[in-house]
Amino acid sequence: MSWFAVDDRFHSHQKVALLRRNPNAATAIALWTLAGSWAAGDARASLTGRVPVHVLEDWRLPGTLDAIAALVDVGLWACDGAAVIFHDWEHWNGPDAKAHRVTEQTRVRVQRTRLRKCERGEHSKDCPTFDLDGHPWVCPRRAKKDRVTPRSATPGRDGTGRDGSGLTTSVKEDLSKQNGEAT
Predict the structure, then answer these.
(1) Disulfide: which of 48, 148, 156, 181 matches 176 by Cβ 3.0-4.6 Å?
(2) What are the Cα distances from residue 104, in Å, to 4, 5, 37, 59, 151?
(3) pTM
(4) pLDDT tens figures, 133-146
(5) Which of 15, 37, 23, 146 is nearest to 87 (CA)?
């Protein structure tokens, strides 16, 4: 029995987040899953990720055409009228899938290890800049090292405006009004 690879972060991918806003999201996700399993089991489709529209219609899911349109709109599928084509099929399910999956799994494993080390205080030049979900991550050591002294803590130089002397009268008045000070 063949199988269809679905990323374990599929539920939180930005394309799926967009899809969930669509009223046909449930049908679309069901259709995407059924089509993926069908494609993985078909000799020709397993190489290309191409599923004929008539196969999708044979499942008789309510709102199939709207679900196809929703999947195309968010970029999970492309459609040429006769068939739908999975986005990035060749990377995850096609002939080169195993090599791509191994590379991606290694990348995630190394990222996870570096993140754990950084959290424990074992810092290096390889401390990550993003967490596992792709959100920005700031290494505590790097944050401390990169911290800049605020301008208000440094003495101003005449005529630069840092001490207020280089500001025009109207700007000073505007600032005073904003701060509720009398001019």
Answers:
(1) 181
(2) 17, 13, 22, 33, 43
(3) 0.55
(4) 777 878 777 666 65
(5) 15
